[in-house]
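Researcher: We're teaching a course module on how sequence relates to structure. For the next exercise, students receive a sequence and then see the predicted structure as tokens, so they can try to spot secondary structure elements on their own. Here is the exercise chain.
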Amino acid sequence: MVMTESARNKLFGISRHRINRYMHTLDEQSQQINQKQRDRFRRDMYNYLAQYSELMTHAVTLTFNGSKLEALKRKADWMIGEAYERLLQRSFKHFATRLNRCVYGNATQRYGKTLLILPVIEGLKKDECPHYHCAIGAPERIGHAEFACMVKDSWSNVAFAGHQIDVQPYRDKGWCSYISGDAVFLNRLSVDWDNVQLPVHLLAHC
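Model: And here is the predicted structure for the students to work with:
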């Protein structure tokens, strides 16, 4: 039996409809699963940050120079993905090292003295300028204005640092919630674990 063109079009139309409906259902299920994963990841990240809330003194945002980074990527086409993220991480490590030295001097190297530094990186999507949000705990002996100057001086010495630097007193866990809000990419850097720094007395309880 030869299927007429009309019957064939009708059958294929039904098939396409069923396939589209099936794919739509799968897509909805996938989105629901992914949303649950994202929500869980946000919650876990928030809980990790919030456990140190009583020790946090400053909410800091450090922005990179997007023009310099783009110029580098045009010259070095390998500067993508993990290589690009490692560059940003190394830049932040340089900042954290300088900031610790500003606060603790030689004790940083001799005795391992360090600030509490919890960095979260954002802006890794295309056409976004990468930046760090940080929760930092500084000694009480250092006033806010003095510490803000230390942050700005330390960041200005980073090769790809931008001019947008914001240093605010840490007020409550709302900052932890804010900086964990964009932690939705399970396969991408969010908390910069390589640059998390905990004072020695905290490490003893980890």
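Model: If you want an answer key for the exercise: The longest helix spans residues 5-50. Helices lie at 5-50, 66-75, 81-104, 107-111, 144-156, 174-179, 200-203.
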